[in-house]
Amino acid sequence: MARLSMSAICVLIFIGDIAKADNNFLTGANDIIAVVDEDGDIKASPFNVQFGKKDIWLPRSGHVVSLEVNEKDVPVGMVLDNEGQAYFPTLKSDGSSNRQYRFWSALLGMGNPSPKHRTNSATSSQLSRFGLQMGSNPIMYRVTTSSGSIVTTSAVIHLMNNTAKLVVSDIDGTVTRSNIRGMILPALGLSDWKHDGVVELYRKIANQGYQIVYLTNRAIGQSDMTREYIYSLTETPYKMPRGPVLLQVESLLGAFQTEVIKGQPEVNKIAALSRVKGLFPENPLFSGFGNKAWDILAYKALNINPDMIFNVGEDSILISEGTGIPTNYTNLIDRVSFMYPLLDV
Length: 345
Description:
The protein is 26% helix and 27% strand. The protein is an alpha/beta fold. Helix 8 (266-277) runs parallel beside helix 9.
């Protein structure tokens, strides 16, 4: 790893000092994994969405969030807390369509309900009203502020069968060739800082019937930029396969601190993957790609076969956690049909 300059070290220290003070400035939303069983019942991963101070400068607690799925309004709503995080009220009165935003209650921090009266998980009954179709279902969250402005953010609900198999990939340092530069360069318009061969490999894995899940400790406020970056990657004639993009539910500086300064993001990744795993009757996690020890630790904690866990080096050499044998993208691409047997989907 290149030696950091003194100025870079000072910047990292500064970020670490102010990360806790940063309070969700950006707006964004995680994609959602929804799973349907044989009886047609649907379960889903959390609806993590936040509206940042950049878009709603008023106290945010109490603002109603309307939902639109597949370009149709759905009769299910959410509410913002004082940090701009959306939740489903579990009390009938809280979920009333007549709920009104109260400025002074929000300003004084009195608008948040008790934790037992809120959740970011939709019930099966609520999900049944979304009109979901197998595959990708665009969802838009919309807030009309008390000043009359309309703020929106979007994500995708990925509906799949409960027999689906998932391949999990980190982004920074795994799709990109460096954690720090992978987070910063796309924001500067330099989007091709990726491993050669990763697009073709992931596309061919997806063609075998596996669902790619992109798991990152980038902040949720970077959701739009992250999706745009992933889906912009091509290796003619291959395009990056679409799949759920799951980000860290905290501020931009907090996410940077977790990933780069503290270096302890495995807790977040284990928690996120555990929620996904719990949607299925059997472990759906088939394979994992990462570039740090904590990625590998998270995948092993979720009982992914070590032979199917790959540690990706900045030189594009991949090492199997189970066998310890180094390989490269060309070799994996040639062996896709053997390592990822065709699924009946």
